[in-house]
Specification:
heterodimer; A: mainly alpha; 2 helices; B: mainly alpha; two-stranded antiparallel ribbon; 2% strand; globular
Chain lengths: 58, 253
């Protein structure tokens, strides 16, 4: 293992702020997109259910 | 019901019908999502534990494993979005316009990641988070084109008109993609030239391997995200259709 310790790995040769700042934000926006996709799908399913209920009473 | 969906035998056009594509996309989403996770795990392992520290840039260069894939995907997704928007505009095919609408948010996300990681890479390498350089400025315009496409579609209530207006914007904006790609050649920019070109590469093999694995990870992730969004868009637009009611009854929605 080239890093030797967790500390060395996290410090990224002094560039830790830039490297982890990139990776954390990248992971964050991807998680946010997946969450938004889930929410939008749930809303669409609810709406489809409302349509079906309206169709039965009509 | 159009005749293509009821004709016997295999036909690629069959899948152009939203009701046929919906369950197909549903099977593809988890497949590509798992593929993306596996590729990212291997790519990050290669990038952080097998690839050595760069002789010139130290470990700051490791941003490349997400910077280049997101920048490539931002450009590629834009071309794909404009293509499907154009097909929808010319042939009036419903699914094509839905595909364009499904691609835009993921494309914007990729453009944002490339700009953000570029800024954090630029600071230690050039001494500045941002410069008004040709490559950076044209990529910022790409992000604005995505956001403009999303906003324009959202602002128009009539879906067919929204699709048409969005398609025109998307097609006009295509001019920006070759400008981004060739900006490092055409102008004197701070941004470095392409390290990877068809047929040649100036990177060490192990670094290139890690980067390409991450490119495929981003690619498969984008496919999964776009198809998942496409399914929701189909549902939103076709919620009154009989097939949606039927699928809902069967519990396969």
């Amino acid at each position: 293992m080239q890093w030797g310790s967790l500390e060395n790995f996290l410090s990224m040769g002094g560039y830790g702020f830039y490297v982890w700042g990139s990776y954390l934000v990248c992971a964050g926006v991807i998680v946010a997109e997946i969450w938004a996709l889930r929410q939008r799908r749930r809303a669409a399913l609810t709406e489809a259910g409302r349509m079906a209920a309206a169709g039965r009473t009509a | 019901m159009s005749s293509v969906t009821t004709s016997p035998g295999f036909s690629l056009f069959r899948y152009a019908a939203p009701n046929v594509f919906y369950p197909l996309a549903g099977r593809m989403v988890p497949l590509f999502a798992v593929l993306a996770a596996v590729l990212a795990a291997i790519g990050l392992y290669v990038g952080f534990f097998m690839a050595p520290t760069d002789a010139q840039q130290g470990d700051s260069y490791r941003i490349i494993y997400i910077h280049v894939p997101s920048a490539w995907m931002a450009m590629f997704l834009y071309l794909t979005m404009a293509f499907w928007a154009g097909v929808g505009l010319v042939f009036n095919t419903r699914l094509s316009s839905m595909m364009a609408q499904a691609i835009a948010p993921t494309g914007a996300l990729m453009a944002f990641i490339s700009l953000w990681t570029g800024a954090l890479w630029g600071r230690p390498t050039w001494g500045a988070y941002w410069v008004w350089d040709a490559r950076l400025t044209s990529t910022l315009i790409l992000l604005f084109l995505y956001l403009g496409f999303i906003a324009l579609q959202a602002a128009i209530d009539d879906q067919r008109r929204a699709d048409k207006a969005g398609a025109v914007l998307a097609l006009v904006g295509v001019i920006n993609v070759p400008i981004i790609y060739f900006s490092v050649k055409w102008w004197n920019t701070l941004h470095q030239g392409a390290s990877v070109k068809p047929g040649s590469s100036s990177m060490a093999d192990i670094m290139l391997t890690g980067m390409l694995l991450m490119v495929f990870a981003f690619w498969t992730y984008a496919i999964a995200a776009v198809l998942a969004r496409l399914r929701t868009i189909i549902l939103e637009r076709e919620r009154r259709a009989q097939w949606v009611l039927d699928a809902r009854e069967r519990g396969t929605l």
